[in-house]
Amino acid sequence: MCMQRQRYSVLTSFLEVPCVSSSFDSSLVRRSNILECQSVLRNCLPARCMSSTSIELKTNNDVVRFSFGKPLDKTGSSTKGKKMAKRAEVSKKAKLNELRFYRLKAKKKMNSPNPEVRIRYKLEKAKRKEAWLIEKLMKFEVAKAPADIHDPEILTEEEKHYLKRTGEKKKNYVPVGRRGVFGGVVLNMHLHWKKHETVKVICKPCKPGQVQEYAQELARLSKGIVIDIKCNNTVIFYRGKNYVQPKVMSPTDTLSKNKALEKYKYEQSLEHTSQFIEKLGKELEEYHKHLARFKKVNENATQDSLINT
């Protein structure tokens, strides 16, 4: 009760403002009154009672009045009257109609009597798919880690021959399948090198010339030495004389097993799509040649008919 009386007394003493005749002085008094009133209210009222509304003190006709304005933003402007522009919502029926329109358009092109229209439609569709697949494959590209200082060991011909024979005789091997080179292959190589000096890496299925790429990549990732490449699908690796098993056996700049499989699927799809595009391009060229031949035959026939007449 004492606190409330003190606050009331402060406010009443403050609100007793003398009446001023001139307009200029009255405006100054109003501004000073507003500022002082706000400071008094801040000191008197607790924080939870305060709000962001603007309070104005009016002294018109010798009467003091408070006016509570609109709530202010962070910038100081009133929020009332501002309406966010709502995005026009498309109904489900409109979406279905749009899809139906595109389907009918594609169906007309596919069933067109003109073979050029059909071929061009397929070609455009295949090119769009090719661009989409290239964009997908870009996501699977991993930045290569900075190469560590690695001193490759120099082996004599006798040592190479001995390691080659031992590698051929031993049965331990690491398969490289359709996923290609990923972190698990390098991990398996290091696990084999715990007990064996050499390890065979068998690549199946493997395209011609792909074994050399695999050998270079695995030599970079595992820091092993390529001893021999045989049968276009087998590589023999030697761990080295001063081999120390690394703490992280699966390199960070390689793909995981699942991602490697996804990448393989996209690569296969891209390969087939590019072959299909080449095939369609040849068909289009043949069609244009056929049209040119047909026009020549018609021109010759018309000329012969004119000569005969």
Automatic annotation (TrEMBL):
Q: Does the keyword Coiled coil apply?
A: yes
Coiled-coil ranges from the UniProt annotation? 277-304
Q: Does the keyword Coiled coil apply?
A: yes
Q: Which domain of life is it from?
A: Eukaryota
- Specify the CRM domain's residue ranges: 153-250
What's a single GO MF annotation on this record?
Answer: RNA binding
Query: What UniProt keywords apply to this chain's record, in alphabetical order?
Result: Coiled coil, RNA-binding
Query: What Pfam families does the record point to?
Result: CRS1_YhbY (PF01985)
What is the protein name given in its UniProt record? CRM domain-containing protein
The record lists the organism as Prunus armeniaca (Apricot)
